[in-house]
Amino acid sequence: MAGRSWRQIVVPYAKPDTRRGIIQLLNTGLPFLATMGVMLYGLDRGIEAALLLAPVAAALLVRLFAIQHDCGHGSFFASRWANNLLGRVLGVFTLTPYAFWRRRHAVHHATSGNLDQRGVGDVTTVTLREYLSFPARRRLLYRLYRHPLVMFGVGPAYQFVIRHRVPTGHPLRHWQEWSSVLGTNGAIAALVVLAAVTVGLKPLLLGYLPVILLAASIGVWLFYVQHQFEDAYWESRPRWNFQAAALEGCSFYDLPRALHWITGHIGFHHIHHLSSKIPNYRLRECFEQNPEFQEAKRLTLWDSLKCPRLALWDEERRKLVPFRSLRQA
Length: 329
Fold this sequence. Notes:
two-stranded parallel sheet
C-alpha cells in the first residue's frame, strides 16, 4: 500500500448508513419471517413439502447473522444502542447470545493469525511440530475435530444448539456473559412456548431445526475457508503483524454476486479484518474502488473445496498442509 496507509483508505467506508441498514434489515428479515411462517403453516397441516423452504430460510438466516455480526462490531447502525438492541433480537433467531459471542469474536479479530494467542473465537489449529509431539490420544482427538463431518456437521450443531446455551466462567466476574446466555435462553424459551401454542411444538421442531442446523453449517464453512487456506498467515510474537494478519491471513472469497448478497459480503474478509467498522453493505465498494485490496489471496468456490483437507501449520514451509504431509515429516 505504497503512498497511502490502510487507515487512510478505509476511513471513508467506515461510516454506517442508517437508511441502507434499515433497507437491508427489511429485505432480509421480512422474507425470513414470511418463509418461516409459510413453512410452519404447511407443516402444521401435514404438508411435508413445506420443508423444501428450509434452504431458503437457512440462507436468509445466514444473512441475518451477518447483520448481527455487524452489530457486534458497532458498524451496522451509527447508534451503539440500536446496534446492541438489534444484535440481541437477532441472537434469539440465530440461537447466539449476542454479548457472549461479541466478546469472543473481538478476541478473534485481535489475535487472528497469532500462534501465541490461539483458542478463543477461532478454529483450533496446531502446527505440524506440535502435532508430532502429541500423545496418540490427543492426535486422534485432533483428527476427529478436523474431520469434515465433525467440522461442518456435528460441530456447528453442538456450537449453536448446545454450547451457546451454557454460560461459563464465574457468574459474578463474568456476569455480562451469563446474562447474555441466560437472557437469550429465556427469550428463546418464550418464543418456543408461543409457537407451540399457535402452530404446535412438532411443526416448530420439524421446521426450525433443519433451518438452524443448515445455517450453522454454512456459517462455520464461511468462517473456516476465510482463514483455513493453504497460504494463510500464522506468526509468533513479536513478528506477528495486524495488517499482515488481515491482508495475508484472510481470504477474498470470490463468490457469485447472489452468494455475496446472501452471506452479507463477508467474502471480502481481508477488508473486514483490516477495518471491522466498515458495514457489510460497503465492503464491495471499498474493494472495487481500491486496487490495493484486489491483490488479496483470492479463493474461488472450487478452490475452497480443497480447504477442509488442510489441518496443520507447517512453520518451515509456511503453509497449511494436510495430514498426509506427516509421512514426509
